Amino acid sequence: MEEIYDQRVQHLIEQNCGNDMLRFLYTASYLGMNFSGYFVNAFFEGREDLYKNLLERRYIMLSSVGYSFIHESLYLYINNRLRNNKEAKKEVANYLLNVPYVFDEMDVLKRDNFIFG
Predict the structure, then answer these.
(1) What angle do CA 105, 68, 23 make, to 5 degrees?
(2) Quick one: pLDDT at residue 105?
(3) How far apart are CA 18 and CA 29, in angstroms?
(4) pTM, whole model, 2 decimals?
(5) 4 C-beta neighbours (distance < 10 Å), count
């Protein structure tokens, strides 16, 4: 399964603004399997075509809480890539610190892990 996800991510990166879409997936994976519509709108402000691309390519889907990863295995794969990528972790941290509402909406354990972890 990991090999298939490796190929999907590589193909995503090769797309126009692919690194932005991957950065979004990393940030979303830090927030959890499910994430708010506010986060999606804030991240892709003015670039709605990018999140629509992720919907069409079946990385994310609409859910009762806003959005979620299309499958738990994809969420775990993306989250594992984030945990093993120092540069991506810095980018996620910078984003979360610069968009206070998203940071404020994180559950307490994730916020504490973010600050102290």
Answers:
(1) 75
(2) 63
(3) 16
(4) 0.85
(5) 11
